[in-house]
Every structure is written in structure tokens, then in C-alpha cells.
Amino acid sequence: MLALRHNDGGLLEDYSFSSGGNNNTYQSWDFVEKVLQNQVDDLGDKYSGYMQADWGNYFYVSGPVYDNQNKFAGVILVGTSLEKLATTIHEKSLGQITFYNFEGIPVSTSFIFNPPPLDSPTASQVIANQSLPQSSVRSVSDQRDLSVVDITYTEVLAAWEARGDVDL
User: Fold this and answer.
1) Which of 16, 17, 57, 101 has the smallest set of CB atoms within 10 Å of its CB?
2) Per residue in 101-158, pLDDT tens?
3) Which of 28, 54, 82 is at the close of a domain?
């Protein structure tokens, strides 16, 4: 196992390296396990997922690595922190972004404040609404108003899905 992690706040080329060690943490992740088992479906042989790890909340893509004889040699994970992902989406869209977990707790946000959690019925309804036709989704449950320093925002709520319609 070889791990490279960018040092928070460091220059572009500032990475920490570690090798060896116990990789059971990674093997237990569903999207890594699928690659280790050489699973291939209609979308290919790469998988993705969100993980809360000791080093932060990350979105990863996993894929197979082959040696020069085209034999399976391992798995590569490429990830980005949800903080960086929220910031990048904010920069590209000029909209504020918040990622919530299934319980409605904010995991990462581009706001300068932490938005209040979603109540459980709203969080569940957002997940349920994703399978409805687009014209049916417009309801009170897919948005809410947030007020910050006398400014009211309308937060549009939608499920975050990755490869193969996996809810994150």
C-alpha cells in the first residue's frame, strides 16, 4: 500500500507519503471491494463513494491497476475532500453548496456559517423525491429558507448521487 495525501494548506506539490501498513480500512469500503473483486458492470470497472475517514470527509473514485503483463495488481483511489468539492462547485456556479448526511447533518459547506441540520422527515423526503418525475418534485420538502444576518436564502435540496445512482 502506498498513500499520498496533500498537506492541508500546503503548496500544490506538498504531499505526505506512507507505505506498507494495514490497508484493511480501504478494503472494507464498498467501492474498493468491487474493484478488488474485479467487478465490471454496464458502466465499467470504476466505482465511487463518500467516506468519513480520520483525515476528513472525502469523495473517492476507485479503479483497477494492471501490471505490464495486464494482470490485476491493485486498486488506485483518487479523492477530494468534500470541503474542496463544495468550494470548487461554489466557485464555478456562484451558488453556496452544503453536503448533508442521510440524517440531515451538514458534513461540509461553502457557506461562512454552518447551516442548521435538516429534520429527519425532510432529509428522508429529499431522497424519496429523487425518483419522482421532475415536474412532481417541486414541493415544500425540496427547499427551505435560511436567514443569515438579515439575508434570506432559499436552499434547494436534492439528493447527491454518484455512479450508478448510488445515493451519497
Assistant:
1) 17
2) 999 999 999 988 888 999 988 888 888 887 765 555 444 458 888 887 788 888 889 8
3) 82
pTM for the whole thing?
A: 0.80
The reply to whether 87 falls in a domain is no
Q: Say whether both 16 and 76 belong to one domain.
A: yes
The tens digit of pLDDT for each residue in 20-62 reads 656 567 888 899 999 999 999 999 999 999 998 888 899 999 9
Read off φ and ψ for residue 33, nearest 5 degrees: -60, -40
CB atoms within 10 A of CB 161: 12
Residues 154, 79: Cα–Cα separation, whole Å: 30
Domain extent at residue 78:
2-82
Structural domain count of the chain: 2
Identity at 43, one-letter amino acid code: L
